[in-house]
Amino acid sequence: MAETHQEIPIDRKLSEIFQEAYDLMGTLDTCYDPTNSPEVQAKIKKCIGLFEDSTRLVSLCGLFSKNETHDEVATDNLRYFLLPFFLAQLTLKLCNAERKEIVEVAEVYYNDFLRRCEDYKLCDKPEAVLVEEHHGAHEGDKFQELTRMAQERNAKLKKYQEKKELDEQIKKLKIAMEKEHVDEEVKREFYMKLLNSCIMEAHEELVSISQEKQILEHIAVMRRNSGGEEGKMHPPKGPAPRPLKPIIITKDAVQKAVFGLGYPSFPTMTVAEFYEQRVAEGIFPDAERMKEINKNSLMNRVYQDNEAEQDKEDEKNEMLVEQDDEEYLARQRAKDEFKDDHRRGYGNRYNRS
Known about the structure:
Elements: H1 14-29, H2 38-61, H3 83-91, H4 99-119, H5 127-134, H6 142-177, H7 184-225, E1 249-250, H8 253-259, E2 269-270, H9 271-281, H10 287-295, H11 298-322, H12 326-341
Parallel strand pairs: 1-2
Region (Disordered): 301-353
Keywords: Coiled coil
Protein name: Immunoglobulin-binding protein 1
């Protein structure tokens, strides 16, 4: 998605890429420059590229599984649930594409975030769907319509108050997270509260996106119906921007076929396809290069040293056998006799009848 995407060094950690993107996003929140300025847009695109790379690496590592709940996820991995949420927020700040395309991509990210949170029992069914189903049930009855609107208003006020209190707690925990040594419980509490806050915000954003899509559709109809130059869209100067595509990766082709049904206009790719693409781009090493890398690794060197020592030991023993060394042969006979008299596991009788 990001045009200023940079290649990932093969020795760079997922946590480092995510942290860089998270810190960069924090600078955007405190920036007073206009969002459509070239400097801010460049930062947004770079941040999107880093979060996209983090998403790809999370998929490659297979950190998440639908068979788990959030209690089974490691504390440091909880933050990666937020990847589609952050990508949705940053996508909405882009100014180099059609607004309709931007809000559709952001909608995909928010829905992906809520679905994953729902799978891991972090939230229930998105409330935005329930509101749409309930809306219009008593449209003809003015009194019931007013009652429904009052209930919705009270529910919104209650949620607003809950989110405000949650954000205050997150601010306090964020200060504790900046310390050099952070307790595991504090870290987990911070991520859980941050996730709950983002879930509430994602519900609100989906409602706003739904309303904005209706407005954009209305504007498009008005432009089509109106005649003359005023109703025509003037093509932007320079090359057309690349179409936006959300980065949602599945493990295999079967998941790709099923997962893609939710939004068929936005294709996904399997991990194998993604890796092949990255190898073709020269970002990830191919199989031959990985052999060269592994050949020089510390573990491989230790293995080679052990193998060389074993070869020397075998050669020495073979020479002793050829020379009929009495001491060595007596030692080998004693070993054989011991094995004959003592079965495997002999003497390991603790707590057994």
